[in-house]
Specification:
Distance between the termini: 75 Å
Number of strands: 19
Number of helices: 5
Number of domains: 2
Radius of gyration: 33 Å
């Protein structure tokens, strides 16, 4: 009888804990994984001399340090940073990405709940508790967006996530490549002056006023990438080639059209395709 009784108690104690992370995820935790040490022999001795129907406690030694280490490991898989709403690319098509709250596992509360469950032989599900962090940007409206395909020298224009039209462009030559990345329009000028950038290729150049020979044509749309912008060019023969010093050149009528359809803050994606 004591042997069968011990096996029954061991089987009952070995039931796993269920940790509920969220609606889509639970974690299965075996008591032995945390080094809990139940005193089965003591419980069996108590049961032999207890009155029928009496509740006999099972003494359990719980290693707090092991529980604490486990909770830290658990937090690495459950914690997440808040994610701002933003505009991103899926292939070459822009779309709005929703904001997501961040969460930090409450370590002390989780450790205490696990130790209590082990010590009292409770196997009720444990819902993990988190501190919630809010994203700084809650919504991102997708209006117009520009996608520049550097490898094929094309500029794609989207409005409300729908493709509208594309233009041939010139991008940076190998010595001065157009930078890849996610940017936005930060400066817009009609009939701009051209000022030499702080680069060796322009060190002997002088500013050029608006007019037929202006390297920027009649429109300038500066990006958040330093000294890089989308602009018209009097050198229409360069369109379709890697010919600029990093900027994105357009035919003058095309740049004037684009100027009317973008604004400060319009997202601009430059990809290698």
């Amino acid at each position: 009888m004591p042997y069968q009784a011990r096996k029954a108690v061991e089987h009952a104690y070995d039931r796993h804990l269920e940790l509920i992370v969220d609606e889509a995820r639970t974690v299965d935790l075996a008591p032995g994984a945390l080094g809990a040490q139940p005193n089965f022999s003591k419980a069996i001795r108590r049961a032999r001399f207890a009155r029928p129907g009496a509740v006999v406690p099972l003494d359990v030694e719980v290693a707090q340090a092991r529980v604490r280490r486990y909770v830290e490991r658990l937090a690495k898989s459950t914690d997440r940073n808040a994610r701002d709403a933003r505009i991103a690319l899926e292939g070459t098509r822009p779309h709005a990405v929703k904001a997501q709250e961040g969460r930090l596992l409450k370590r002390l509360t989780t450790g205490r709940s696990i130790r209590t469950a082990l010590a009292t032989n409770s196997r009720l599900p444990i819902r993990l508790r988190f501190e919630i962090t809010k994203p700084k940007v809650q919504t991102a409206a997708l209006d117009e967006a520009v996608v520049i395909l550097r490898g094929s020298n094309r500029l794609l224009f989207f409005d409300d996530a729908k493709f509208v039209r594309w233009f041939g462009v010139a991008t940076g030559q190998s010595a001065y490549p157009t930078p890849l990345g996610d940017y936005e329009v930060v400066n817009m000028q009609r009939n701009p002056w051209w000022y030499p950038p702080p680069s060796p290729w322009a060190e002997d150049s002088q500013p050029v006023p608006p007019g037929p020979g202006n390297p920027l044509g009649t429109r300038w749309m500066g990006l958040s990438a330093p000294y890089v912008g989308i602009h018209g060019t009097p050198d229409a023969a360069s369109i379709g080639y890697s010919a600029s010093h990093g900027c994105i050149r357009m035919r003058i009528p095309d740049a004037e059209w684009l100027f009317l359809h973008v604004k400060i803050g319009t997202p601009v994606f430059i990809v290698s395709k």
